[in-house]
Amino acid sequence: MTTPPTAAERPDDKSGQATAHPVGLTPPAAAERPDATPAAAAEHPGGASAIAERRAGLPAAEGPDGASVAVERLDAVPTAAERSHGASATAERPAGPSAALRPGGWSVAGEWRDASPAPAEQAQSTSGAGEPAAGPSGGEGPDGASAVGERPGVPAVAAEGSGAVFPGAESLDVLLGDPWRVGNPYGFAAAVARDGRAEFPHAFAERLESADLPLAHVPAGLGGTLTGLDDTLQRVRVAARRDAAVMPATLLSCAAVATVLAAGTPGQARAVADWVHAGRTVAFALSEEHAGSDVLANTCRLEEAPGGGFTLTGSKWLVGRGATAHAALVVARTAPRGPAAFTAVLLGPRELARVRRAAAHPVTGMRGIDFADLVFDGTPVPADAVVGAVGGGLAAAMRAQQLVRLLSTAACLATADTALRTALRFTRSRKAAGAAVAAAHTERDIALAGAELMAADVLSLTAARYAQLSPGTFGLCSHVVKRVATRLTASSIARSRGLLGARGFLADGPGSVVDKAQRDNAVVESIDTSPLGVLRAVAAQLPAYAEPPQDARTAPPDVRALCAYGEPLPALDHTALDLAARPRDRVLLGFAEHAATVAARLEECGAPRAAELVREVRAALAATVAAAADARRDRAAGPEPLDLADSGCLLYAAAAAALAWWAHPGRGLYGERPDGAGWLTAVLAVLLAHADGRDPRRVPAGDLAPAAEAVTRLDADPQLFTALPVRLSDAPGPA
């Protein structure tokens, strides 16, 4: 997670090629095989167990200034307990009442929940005002359970190697315990209490570090735990659903690390990996307050120094973890104009010691995370701190941002999951005038919130696999997934909050949980790429898809691999990420080729309504890209290009959902029977309504009903609101 830029311009854009080789939404004549055969990523020597050893005693590695990382760079870095505002993560303070609890002992989830603490919770000490201390170390969760065993009242959760699709996510969720339990330091009550104090999640972050979550974006070849980005997405979600602030607390180095892996030297890659292994944070400094989302207007400059090396002068704005980071990747101007006028440099603790860090800005969401300015006043920078070529810094950073946009969707999905689950449990337990609140008039909002969340989920999972299978063509998808996930989950959360009625604005009870989820979700919209920057990038690329294909090399490979969630993937190649706007997107081309086949298959499975909607999506996409091409030729005529881009993003998500259903023959998604298409009907109907500017509440009740059934079924199990089963440690909700 990073700071909010970016301009629509892509530094090494080769969009001129689009007119030479246009690719339309008519089916291509031929299809390629995938770029790379999916295979398990190569393991780092020593495996994951080597990570703990590296943290205990890091081997020397050459950093960008030639210094030993272990000796000269890390010895000046605060310990885990010191690094957040200088406070001890385990210092005991008098316990105080949780802000999330109602008088009388109600839980954050509503009346149905037994708020009395479990015996293990009664024995816990406290580490903050109203926040219980971390649970036992090792394999036990906060309520005393084994990380992979059973607890009374909670179904057994699959351990690693058990055959679960995402066993790492399931095991991590059990390790963190039931989030509804009031005394759980990794639960909702503790998160709301921390948020009220704007307190960094010390104990939670350390718990996740012990489970190696911060290494989930680091390739196995550098000692990380990244195998598949879809697996990473799910692991992050089960942590962030409890408190989205743990994402910048533990994973904020992703942008800087990805930039170094995309353009840096092997020594620089090892240096940033070692910092992450040691629990350090590498900030990403790109944005400047006066420039906003137009990074080409940035003025912070990197100049050659008379005695060699460089000096940095200027400031960077809203740098995530800027006040507490131990290293930073800074993109600064090295030439007067143009996208090739910027260079990236990697500053270690020694260089950052000479940088002034302004006080953190107050924020409305993800409270406790510092977003601070970095001020440079002729700061010395060694020559070998340059990442990539001089003048190539912005291009490298923008390539890396494709992955950051993807991973940021985990926070969107996590917060929407929490809001909807809270609303579901409230409506199914609350009585009004002797009748359940979960009456027919609430089912529509539950269905809409569920369909919007499922649409964002299936697109995010598809995008996660796409980035590894074909990083060179991932650019458009990375913008689309960011737009769709932020827009749809924000809408889903708003509907969930509405289901709470008056309790939705109370500062305790279920309203406090949903309020925090909503504020945290809103932060993600402008992090890493602004909404305007996203739509501009999509608007620039859509017109190229209006013409029929003229080159068989642009035809898509087998798109089923994009949706084979949890299946092995090739190692992620950061260097292959590309900014060129050539019309090669696998989802759009794949849907154009297979839409008729998908519709026919739905007919065979007894889902004629879903088949009809697939055909509507195909026609709407064709009309949208044609209108985008017309708007490019005559800007005075037709719809606004950014509006077309917004509709195009929603229709892209619909195409991905249809392909996901088709890619799982004989297996039901979202807990449905094999080949069940109820969820798909709801998702496509809602996405078409959004894309057309219609109120989704006018979607026929019969189309929506399967979405309400799906999320109710998944919560009762309980499972994450995602396509394939991810079992959770939550006590089951009310039926």
Entry keywords:
single chain, 735 residues, alpha+beta, four-stranded mixed sheet, four-stranded antiparallel sheet, 22 helices, 12 strands, disordered N terminus
Task: Summarize the structure in short.
By secondary structure, this protein is α+β, with helices and mostly antiparallel strands. The chain has 22 helices and 12 strands.
Describe the model:
The chain has 735 residues and is an alpha+beta fold. It is built from 22 helices and twelve strands. The chain has a four-stranded mixed sheet with strand order 3-6-7-10. A four-stranded antiparallel sheet has the order 4-5-9-8, with no helix packed on it. Helix 14 packs across helix 20 and helix 20 runs antiparallel to helix 21. The N terminus is likely disordered.
What is the CA-CA span between the terminal residues? 37 Å
Structural class: alpha+beta
In which order are the strands of the major sheet placed?
3-6-7-10
Proportion of helical residues: 40-55%
Strand content: 5-15%
What value does the Rg take, in angstroms? 25 Å
* Quaternary structure: single chain
Shape: globular
Number of helices: 22
Mean pLDDT metric: 81
How many distinct beta strands? Answer: 12
Stretches with pLDDT under 50, minimum 5 residues:
1-24, 26-161
The largest sheet, given as strand count, sense and whether it forms a barrel, is: 4 strands, mixed
